[in-house]
Amino acid sequence: MPRTNTLHGAAPDEHPVALLIIDLISDFEFEDGQKLARIAKRLVKPVARLTARARTAGVPVIYVNDNRGRWRSDRSELIQRCLAANSIGKPIVEALAPQPKDYFIFKPKHSGFFATPLAALLEHLGTRKLMLTGLTTEQCILFTAIDAYVRDFELLIPRDAVAGLRLSAPALAHMKTVLKANTASSSRVRFSKRPRKANKKAHPGN
């Protein structure tokens, strides 16, 4: 069945791969936030490099973030708060802030798919492979990966681009073994250029 323009032109990209950046846009003002921010700083370089390469190749970049604003947050307000002088997450957000053409989705629970438009967006983009990066390996990365797996997405989870507080290693091993995820280092990821769309000839009378 041909893919229909269900988002009415709101998602102009089309690519079989999408890069998800999960929960890295944060002020880390929560329990264990300072500890998690220190861990997150190790992800900045590999995630920033992946993101730059993805954008160059035309791969959609999708930020999936906790809805800590209780449905009153928006992308600009969150980024502004995270960039405040007293924000623990300021150096992380400065390095990884979304660009205007990137996508941004708020999630209410661990999985990026639960009660969000992510599945509809990915369908519109024609995406079949998801690259997951961010926090935390044993919670939001794992839950998102499981939901992606049951939707038949191919998974790529670079081991140096995800991190967690505890159980990170066994969670990554589980995703590799059970969810068939590729967990190779981010340096081994290769992006192909965005496929060119075929020129469609208009039918007579259109």
Report on this model:
The protein has 206 residues and is an alpha/beta fold. The chain has one domain (17-188): Rossmann fold (3-Layer(aba) Sandwich). Helix content is 33%, strand content 14%. It contains 7 helices and 6 strands. It has helices at residues 33-40, 44-57, 75-82, 90-96, 118-125, 137-150, 168-177, and strands at residues 17-22, 61-66, 103-107, 129-135, 154-156, 162-163. Strands 1, 2, 3, 4, 5 and 6 form a 6-stranded parallel beta sheet that branches. Helix 6 packs parallel to helix 7 (168-177). It is globular and about 40 Å long. 37% of the residues are buried. Residues 198-206 have low confidence and may be disordered.
Give me the number of helical elements.
7
**Proportion of helical residues:** 25-40%
Strand content: 5-15%
Terminal-residue CA separation: 21 Å
Mean pLDDT: 89
* Secondary-structure element order, N to C: EHHEHHEHEHEEH
Spans of at least 5 consecutive residues whose pLDDT stays below 50 are: 198-206
Radius of gyration: 17 Å
CATH class categorisation = Alpha Beta
What characteristics describe this protein?
six-stranded parallel beta sheet, alpha/beta, 7 helices, 206 residues
Secondary structure elements and their pairing?
Layout: E1 17-22, H1 33-40, H2 44-57, E2 61-66, H3 75-82, H4 90-96, E3 103-107, H5 118-125, E4 129-135, H6 137-150, E5 154-156, E6 162-163, H7 168-177
Parallel strand pairs: 1-2, 1-4, 2-3, 4-5, 4-6
Helix pairs in contact: 6-7
